Amino acid sequence: MRQAKLRLQLHIPRFLVALALIHAAMLGVSGCGGGSSDPFVHCGNGRLDPGEECDDGNPLDNDGCLSTCVLARCGDGFIETGVEQCDSHNFGACKDEPCACRDFGRVGGPVSCATTCQVDLSTCGATFTPTATPTPTPVVSSTPTPTASPTPACGDGLLESGESCTTCPADCQVPPPCTVGGVQTAEVAISLPNGSNVTRATVFLAYRPTILGLPGSGSAPAGRIKNKPTNSLFTVNDLDYALQVTASRSPQLASGRFFDVDFDICQGTIPTADDLSCSVTDCSGVGGCTCAVSSSRQ
Asked: In a 3-state reduction of DSSP, which class is residue 125?
């Protein structure tokens, strides 16, 4: 009996020692390999680490280095601001899904993204332009005086806010081209509600075609537009009595100057503020967007 007790006393300490060794071994295994196998663990630290093409230290996908530390390229599905208008099926802020011609002020169905990551508008048609109705050529005076503008009303030759070519076709008539006697610059500013997220806006700038004009129609006068919002997709459609201008940008547009346009002045006339009228026809579904226009002669 005493011998059995002694044997038991000897076996218990060895069992505890074995348990301690096993526990220590398990801790050692769990502590091994402390390094992470995640290839993106260093992406975004602003340093070029092994396996990265770039690292600009930010999580944005609209610049030259994606959030995955891969260089931006056409076809990656992300629009690089200032370089691409679209990428694959990504068109940025479009009112329609899929993106359609009317998102760019044109008539037609869906548009596509070219292999150059620019919007392909070749399938779009021009916005409807009423048939030109011949009118007498403006009389040229040797001593021009400011052209009197009638009280805003249908038939005064200026398509103003609240009027349309359906309700007032007389203001959509296009006179024959006149002899150019100078250049008048119109400055258009847009006002957006505070806190609004407006990524797309369209301004309808009507002008009196017997006094002011632009060369060509449709997108032809695009070269006359300047001071546009930076990094924006900009489309122009001249109806020969009004200019329809659309700007799309992400992040959102801001209040202030929207664009400037250089008009030709018909010889023998002097434009006044009453010869221009602007309205906001689309503002990303946000209400309360307004515009104002001023002009000066060069």
From this structure: strand
